[in-house]
Amino acid sequence: MAARAVRTALACLTALALAGCGAKVAETDQTDKTDAKATGHYPVTVENCGVKTTFDKAPQRVVTNDVGIAEIMFALGLEDHMAGYVAPDYKGDRESVPWKDGYQKVKWLSKKEITKEIVLDAKADLVFAGWNYGFGEGNNFTPDSLKKLGIGSYLLTESCRNNGSAKSRGVMPPLEALYTDLATLGKVFDVEDRAAKLVAGFKKQVADAQARIPADGKKPSVFLYDDGRDKPLTSGVYAGPHDIITKAGGDHVMKDLKDSWTSVSWETVVERDPDVIVINNYGDVTAEQKKAFLKSYGPLANVSAVKNDRIFVLDYVDLVESPRNPAAIAALADYLKGVRTG
Question: Domain boundaries in the chain?
Fold first, then answer.
């Protein structure tokens, strides 16, 4: 679409938004309000990343960004409330998850970066994304910029900015962030019972995994390797891997990083000498290529995980906030048991 055409479309849609279309940020018509209030549930006010928002009815045309966020909606059974999802050409397993049908029911809008044009074409009334999970000032795709178009936003809690900082993310432990989003979205879409059942099931799955962890012995120390050659991208205390590692019986070597996803130096990795390295499997660089690099990179030669070939692979959607986190804890817990006794 030519730049002039895009500007014209945005201007027209902005005018429509001001006239009353869109998500909660714009007024719904009186019929919709009457129908919503008749259920006894709406209006409902929720807090998301420190911002309170009131919904007069459930959003009907949600667009999500990234795989884990789409699967949160799928797990809640909200496919009928979605206009589509944006995600890269994800090659991981979609068939073994209980909510696999969501991928068949909901339109895959784009394999590239989410944009205003995509959500406008989808006639979205709400965008569910996160800071650095679609939202960012650099591309002028923010909740504020969408609000001007009459489109509401819901932020992934894992990505909430810490104390207003544009760099540091994370305001609560990762699993708590997942449970918070499930409960909050349960209120927004009037599926609180479904959300509560999911959370209870996930907590049981984690508890069952922890019950299998040996009570004696030293906790294996674990480093999460996302990607990067010059400097490794890893997880701090507020990203999914922290809870996955610690609740699986490991000692997260980067637990002192008060951030979600961030870079460190290889010198720090060598100094902390992890017993296990968990590889985040995603992107154009395969897990096998990442493993080959770790094993061939000279400075890591004497790191315990590399020397003993203790490298475990989890998928990207296992490690970002998603309903797959509890299963990832169980899988890693079983692996770490062998490290304790091996």
Answer: 3-203, 212-341
